[in-house]
Structures are given as C-alpha cells and as structure tokens.
Fold Ig-like domain-containing protein.
Amino acid sequence: YSYVSSFMFIVLISLVQAGLAQGHVKAVVSVSPDNQLFRGETVTLRCDIQGEGDTGWTYSWYKNNYSLYPHTTYNPYMISSVTQYYSGTYTCSGYRGRDSQSSEISNAVTLTVAQAVLSPQSPVFTGESVTLKCEVQGYDGQWTTVAQSVFDTVHRDTLTIIGDAVVNGDQYQCRGERHDRPTTSQYSNTVTLTVHVKPTPELISSLKGAALVGNPVTLHCKLDQSAEWSFYWSRHTQKPENESNTAANSYNISSVAPSDGGQYWCRAGRGNPVYYTNYNDALWVNLTGEEHSFDDSSSLGLVGLTVGPSLVVFFLLLILLWCYKTNKGLRSTAGHL
C-alpha cells in the first residue's frame, strides 16, 4: 500500500509541475527606441520568453487583441516608416513545438504615431488677421512651432498673420520641435489661405409695416457665416462709441417707445483686436398708434402722414356743411319772392 501511495504522489507532483510549465511561462514585449513615434520612423518590438532563450520558439503577435502574425519567427518584429495605421496596443505569446510548450500572453505595449496638424481659420476676409494653430497630436509635453512662411510671427504653437500680410493663395505648414528624441516632427498638412471680400450683413425687422407703440419689435442682423461673431447695433447715427453689443444676431425692443423710431444699423465683429464687417444699409423703424413728441424732422413727417388724413376729412365736412346751408338759404329767398 505504501509503495502505491508513493507512486501516486510522484505522478501527481509530475503532473502539477508539467501544468505549471505549460501555462506559466511568461512572455515580455519590449520596444525600441520608444513607444511614442512620428510618422516615418522605424520601431522594433521584441518578444522574450523569460528563462527560456530563443531556441525552438515561434511567436504570435497581436494588435488590439486581434491576431496579427500567428506562429511566426518574426522576433524581433520591425516596422519601418510607421504611419497612423500602426498606432495601437501590441502583445505577443510564444510556442515551442518539441514539447508543446505555450507561454502566457505578454504585457501590452502601446504605440502612438504622432503627427503635426495645422488648424486653419476659415473663411478669411479682406483686411482680417489670421491665426493658425499647430498641434502635435499623440505627444505630451511642450512644443514650439516652425512655420514655413516669410511672415513668422510665432507665439508657441500659434502663428498670427497681420491683416496686410494675408495674401490669397498663400500656403502654410508647421512642425513640432523639442529637446527629447525625436527632436522634430514631420511637416503638417498644408493650409491654403482663401481670402473673401469683407461681408455686409442684412438688417430686417420682424414687422412688415410701422411699429405700434407699446408692442414688441425684433431686428435681425443676417450674416451668411458661421459662429464666433458678435453683433453691434447703432441707431440714429453710426457712432462706434454708442454701439450696443449682443452675442446673438437679434436686437429686441420689448415695448416700443416713441424714442425708438428712426434709423438702425448693424455690423458683426470677431477676433482680438476685433475685425468688423461693413454696416448694412439703414433700416427705418416707423411708429404709429399714438400722438408722439419726436425730436427729429423725419419723425415729425411721420406724424404729419398719420394725422393729415383726419384733418382733410374734417375740412371736407365743414365745406359740405357750408354748401348745404348756403343752398338752403338761397331756396328760402326764392320762395319769398
């Protein structure tokens, strides 16, 4: 009985050791020169089976948990001229055929292929300054910008081109620089400036005719452009120091007062310093509904147009009454004769 027990114990220990050897051999991935790369660089991945050396092993490479190269002898695995396609998480495992030995899946190494991206300001208008921003995507740390242009006004990652130097068709690129490896990125995408004529907004009213005193009126400053514009409003005279400013393109008068009548203008602006569009053609806001005291000749003319028809009717009635009485008097005189 003791011999049988000893034999079974030895067999059990052997099976446990075989199982440990089968499933607990570790694979380790290393990367050279770095896991942060620029497009066009070469990177080398190496899969090491700890404590086993390279004899008799084949390797399986995985990217983002999908099999890339199963049971290959590629070790190290070299990627030349990397692109964005090669960004991802890489792992490996090993297999040795002579004793059917398999390793565990290795640690994960993430490759990041960075690129410089130049963000344009679009559209650009005559006389407007342009700001271009260079972003090196995929890298942490501080970067400066090298711009391929004769107008290099650079503050860190931002290039500003002053209005007079903005030329239609000019092309710009950028790249990142730093002290660590790699020291420079490749050049970014190319941005071509397209300069448009300074826009002129259109000012319209929510009412088709005259505004009734006490009622609301909304003016809309229409500009066929996208966001980042603020709107500036003038009435009676075009004086920038008296302009009111709104973020939206509408100007609301909740209850029209007599002083709200007259001419209105709008224009849009953006940037710092502010770049302004042209003013629109003047829009008249006419009032009706009550007798008002106006302080300008145009408003007095409006009162005349409003009150005038009533006076004409009144005088016509007086004339008709006079004619009636005169005619009646003549008939009476003729009857006596």
Observations:
- The chain is about 20% helix and 35% strand.
